[in-house]
Automatic annotation (TrEMBL):
CDD domains: gram_neg_porins. It comes from Cupriavidus plantarum. The keyword Signal applies. Residues 1-19 form the signal peptide. This is Putative porin. One of its GO terms (molecular function) is porin activity. Homotrimer.
Length: 379
């Protein structure tokens, strides 16, 4: 019988462990979130005419996508390439929890789809990604960019939440988070058609967070949209105060391409009356300007209870072909109870009102009240 020494076994095991340590480490995480609610909303569309304009409105009750978040599932992965460099990727799909259909126009991974490298010099990623204004102003939005027209999704359409064909750079330097991105228009005849340039930064010091961002986009015909924003958040014990200002100026003929997640300056009745609260029907060559302000607070009442309240106001000029001004007010109050870190239920109430030239945006009415009893689960 062949004898094997104890020393040989130890050396063999040590060699195997060393070889294993030399193999690049990789991981893939499957994750998701489901947010859905029973909602009551006033002044919803009951009937439209041939032009798409609402002819009758009424209240509606039903199961809807959640007030806070868009439901999603995704995969997040990384591979250690050695020397402090890591390959990273994210694929994320959105869906409607009340029907199960895919969102973002039916895309397979409509929320995010990117790949890139992370190293000491920062992270650079390529693909469909969140816009720089979305990232930079996120800490200053009281509900972290809501998911329904009854909350503040209309603000996201002013800044653009996601961009296709984009290259994004991110780096943390001490208290600063720096971010810049470029989106390729991919239209023949010139690089500027459909392109987007953006840059921003966040500064964090203890309970204080500050941010500033700028962005310029061009549609396929090189009409421009310019965004600039600043924000601040400050924590005082269990209370956090949030606020931001967003400036948007769009050429009258600005018409985003399918890869640009913006609201057109003007559109058809069918586009806007099918989405209560959206504004800007008609056509014009005059630029439209929006000045959006949000002020809100979050109160951590107990370990399980969180209360939120916020007001958003938009003062807009040249909102229609006649060059008239308009305004929009959104306000909401939320009570959120956490069973655990992954599961919570909430009661959200919202009030939205439009005035002046924006009148009639809620199925021909000027305001809408919403009540949402919802549940979120993260996995």
């Amino acid at each position: 019988m062949k004898k094997v020494s104890t020393l040989g076994i130890v050396l063999t095991m040590a060699g195997a462990a060393q070889a294993q340590s030399l193999i690049p480490q990789s991981s893939v995480q499957l994750y998701g979130l489901i947010d859905t609610a029973i909602a009551f909303q006033t002044h919803q569309i009951a009937a439209t005419n041939a032009a798409g304009r609402a002819t009758r409105s009424g209240s509606a009750v039903g199961i809807v996508p959640g007030f806070f978040n868009g439901s999603r599932w995704g995969m997040l992965g990384s591979e250690d390439l050695g020397g402090g460099t890591t390959a990273v990727f994210r694929l994320e799909a959105g869906f409607s929890p009340d029907t199960g259909v895919s969102l973002q126009g039916g895309r397979l991974f409509g929320r995010q789809a990117w790949v890139g490298l992370n190293a000491d010099y920062g992270q650079i990623t390529f693909g469909r990604q969140y816009s720089v204004p979305f990232d930079i102003l996120l800490p200053f939005d009281t509900i972290g960019w809501g998911n329904t027209g009854a909350s503040d999704v209309w603000v996201q359409l002013l800044e653009g939440s996601r961009m296709d064909n984009s290259v994004k750079y991110q780096q943390n330097v001490g208290p600063l988070k720096i971010e810049a991105a470029y989106t390729f228009g991919e239209f023949a005849g010139g690089a500027s058609a459909g392109a987007i340039y953006s840059a921003g930064l966040n500064y964090t010091s203890g309970p204080l967070v500050l941010g500033a961002v700028g962005q310029q986009a061009r549609d396929p015909n090189r009409n421009k949209q310019t965004n600039a924003g600043v924000g601040a958040a400050y924590a005082i014990g269990p209370v956090t105060l949030h606020g931001y200002y967003l400036y948007t100026r769009r050429d009258g003929a600005f018409a985003p391409s399918a890869s640009q997640d913006f609201l057109p300056t003007y559109g058809t009745n069918a586009q806007y009356y099918a989405n209560p609260g959206m504004t800007g029907t008609g056509s014009s060559t005059a630029p439209r300007t929006d000045h959006v302000f949000q002020f809100g607070t979050t109160y951590q009442a107990t370990q399980a209870w969180v209360l939120k309240a916020a007001v958003i106001y938009d003062a807009a000029s040249d909102v229609n072909p006649a060059g008239q001004s308009g305004n929009k007010l959104s306000a909401f109050l939320i009570g959120d109870y956490f069973f655990s870190k992954r599961t919570d239920i909430y009661l959200a109430t919202s009030y939205n009102r439009v005035g002046s030239a924006l009148s009639g945006a809620y199925a021909g009415r000027n305001d809408s009240i919403g009540v949402f009893l919802g549940m979120r689960h993260r996995f």
